[in-house]
Amino acid sequence: PLAGKTVLEYGCGNAAVSCAVAERAGRVIGLDIDPAGLELGNEEIRRRQLGNVELELHPVNSILEAVDARRGEVDVFLLYAVLEHLTLGERLAVLARARDVVKPDGVIVVCETPNRLIYFDHHTAQMPFFHLLPDELAAEYYPHSDRQDFKAAMQEAAAGGREELVHAIARWGRGVSFHEFELVFGDLGAHVIGSSYDPLLFGERPVHADEVILARYLDRWRPDLAPAWSRYWLDLILSPQPVARRSPLLRPWTAETTSSSAVSWTRWENLYLHGPQARLEIELPHPTTRLVVSVVAPAGEILRLQLSAQPTKAGLDGEIRAAAPHAAHVTFTFEAPSQRFTLAASRECHVAFVGYED
Fold first, then answer.
1. 263 φ, ψ to 5°?
2. Closest CA to 227 of 267, 256, 254, 261
3. pTM higher than 0.90, yes or no?
4. Collapsed DSSP state (helix, strand, coil) of residue 25
5. Bridge-partner residues for 109, per DSSP?
6. Does the N-terminal peptide bond of residue 242 adopt cis geometry, omega within 30 degrees of 0?
7. What is the pLDDT of residues 288-300, one digit of tens each?
């Protein structure tokens, strides 16, 4: 709950997010380096008659000093769509400041930051793999982008030399991944307390095939990481201090079909249930009482799902009104934990995601 809390938004821009948060929080402090953005933000604050928002303009070389001055005041350190616009050194510095400045029982919130480990760069060049390229190669490769405003800005920056071009690419936005956070926080499993694999966010953050591919890979090589690190956009909440226990997080099941019947993998990296006779056998790493299933089926039709826990055969039914090509989801909650489940559907459908509480 934000009531009575102090939120510091680093890189608040025109304060759109600060104003929205101010409707719930006790006090909002917005810091930015852009005078034009803050001017628009102050206009919006006056229009909304918000008395609990303070916007501060600081040069890029002293904005972290302004952060330091708020030590001990901040309950929520908010990094909304900002980390991707910083250089690597700036990212590490601001994450370290966030960890040190926020109250010990406060939180650091990261929103809408593009994940560099996903194949497609939706944010900047709008083509595959660009945000994975090293800076020098990106400076050579940017003309291949079809995004005309991006290319025009890069061509203008290139007139000032290679260093200016590389800096311009950084300011437009480069992907971020768990690596920066691990350097600052250490064991991320002890710090991540909120993840974007959550039905509350699926309307805004539907699960994509690339995310399922990355989740399967991370499950093999870095099972210690929270599920949020496999998403297109990094939306997560961290504790500045290691936590001994946290609330359960929804984690993607790294699906396999060896025990299933009338179930196939598709080129969209999801599972196709061929009809009512299909049975998807789900075996999890450990027992759970909650599963979330996302499916795609013909638009406008009601799809009935049945999930049975094994070996007890305890079953639950769920209904989804499909809206292809978008996935709809249903949550199943069992009284007793189980590790094995069987999923059936009333007609053919694609299962895009099965999530379980860790």
1. -130, 135
2. 254
3. yes
4. coil
5. 78, 237
6. no
7. 999 999 998 877 7
